[in-house]
Write a structure and sequence with these properties.
Strand content: 15-25%
Largest sheet: 5 strands, mixed, barrel
Structural class: alpha+beta
Radius of gyration: 22 Å
Number of domains: 2
Distance between the termini: 51 Å
Helix content: 25-40%
Strand order of the largest sheet: 7-10-9-8-11
C-alpha cells in the first residue's frame, strides 16, 4: 500500500541566489502604475548588470494576516518552536537566521497531523501582497515549493535570464521630438550603473535602430539625441 502526505520540512537554499527585497509604496501613489514600475525597474537595472547578480532570483511574499492582526501560520505552528513573539522573531531573522535551524526540527511534519489552519494558510499571501504576487507571476516567477518559516508566505523563484522584461529588452538610438499618446507604451531605462533611471513612456519606433521619444522623457532619463535607450514591455 502507498499513501501520500503533504509535509513541512525545514530547508535552506544552498545555491547562490539574488533575493528581491520588499517594496513600500506611499498609499497616494498606488493604483496609477507606480508599484508595477518600481517592481519591474529592479529587473531592468539587473538586465544592465547581469554579471553582478546570481542566475537564480528568489523572492519571499509576505504571509497572510487576518483582520485582528494575527498570523495564523505563526500562531498555530511556528510560534511553538520559539520563545519569542512574532515581531522579535521576524526582526532577529533579518540580522542572523541561524537560530531558526537550532529551534525548528529538521524532520518532516505531516500537515494532516497539524492544526487545520496551518495547511489552510500555508503559502497564502497577505491581502496587500496579492498584486505583487500577480506581477511576479506575470514575469515568470513560480512557486519553488518553499514557504517562509515564520508567517508561511509563499516563496517564488525564476532564472534571471527568463524574467519577461529582461527577455524583451532591446536597445535603440534616441531621437527627440513630439510623440503622441496613441503611440506604444514601453518601459524605458538608461544604461547607467550609478545614475539609473527608469520610466514608462510613449515611444515611436522610427526604424530597427532608432526610436522617437518626447523631450521631457529624454530629460527625465538624462538622455540626449544619439544616446542609447533600452526599451521593454
Amino acid at each position: 500500500m502507498r499513501k501520500s502526505f503533504e509535509a513541512l520540512q525545514l530547508s535552506f537554499i544552498k545555491n547562490p541566489y539574488t533575493e528581491l527585497g520588499t517594496l513600500f509604496m506611499n498609499p497616494n501613489a498606488r493604483g496609477i502604475g507606480g508599484g508595477k514600475l518600481l517592481s519591474f525597474a529592479r529587473f531592468l537595472y539587473m538586465s544592465n548588470n547581469l554579471n553582478r547578480f546570481d542566475k537564480e532570483v528568489v523572492v519571499e511574499i509576505r504571509g497572510y494576516k487576518n483582520a485582528t492582526g494575527i498570523t495564523p501560520f505563526w500562531d498555530k505552528f511556528s510560534s511553538k518552536f520559539f520563545d519569542l513573539n512574532f515581531f522579535d522573531a521576524d526582526n532577529s531573522s533579518y540580522i542572523d537566521n541561524h537560530f531558526i535551524g537550532e529551534c525548528v526540527p529538521s524532520f518532516p511534519l505531516i500537515l494532516d497531523f497539524l492544526p487545520r489552519e496551518v495547511g489552510r494558510y500555508c503559502g497564502k499571501p497577505h491581502t496587500t501582497s496579492k498584486l505583487a504576487l500577480s506581477l511576479l507571476n506575470s514575469q515568470g516567477f513560480k512557486s519553488n515549493g518553499m514557504v517562509d518559516v515564520l508567517d508561511g508566505g509563499p516563496c517564488l523563484s525564476s532564472k534571471l535570464s527568463k524574467i519577461k522584461v529582461i527577455q524583451n529588452k532591446n536597445q535603440f538610438k534616441v531621437k527627440i521630438g513630439k510623440v503622441n499618446s496613441d503611440e506604444g507604451l514601453s518601459f524605458a531605462f538608461n544604461n547607467s550603473l550609478v545614475d539609473f533611471w527608469a520610466t514608462r513612456l510613449f515611444v515611436k519606433r522610427i526604424s530597427n535602430i532608432e526610436v522617437l521619444i518626447d523631450r521631457k522623457d529624454a530629460r527625465h532619463l538624462g538622455l540626449k539625441e544619439g544616446d542609447s535607450i533600452n526599451l521593454s514591455h
